[in-house]
Design goal:
With 111 residues, the protein is an alpha+beta fold. The protein is 56% helix and 16% strand. The two termini are 26 Å apart.
Length: 111
Amino acid sequence: MFPGGAPDLEQLMQQAQQMQQQLVAAQERLAAEEVTGSAGGGLVTATMTGGGELTAVAISPEAVDPDDIETLQDLVVAAVRDAGRLANELAASRMGPLAGGLGGGLGLPGA
C-alpha cells in the first residue's frame, strides 16, 4: 500500500478508537452498578454507584440516640467512606484493563 508503514498507523488508530469506545461503554456500565458500604455493624449503610454518586443512606433506629448525635454522624461518615472505597475498588476492577491499555501511550515510541 503506502511505503513507510502507513497502513500500520491506520490500524493503530482503529485500535485506539475501539479501545476508547470500550472505555466509554465500561464507564456507562460502571455508573449503573451499585455498592453498599456500612458502619457500626450495619447500623448505617450508604449506597453509591460505581461512578461515585451517593444514592442512598439508611440508618437503623438503634443507631439513633438523641443524646449522642456525634456517634451517629461518625457512623454516617464511616459508611459513606466505606461505600466510596468499594466504589473505587469496583471501578478499578472494571476499568483497570481498559484504562491500562490507553495509559500506555498506545505502544507508540516516546509516548
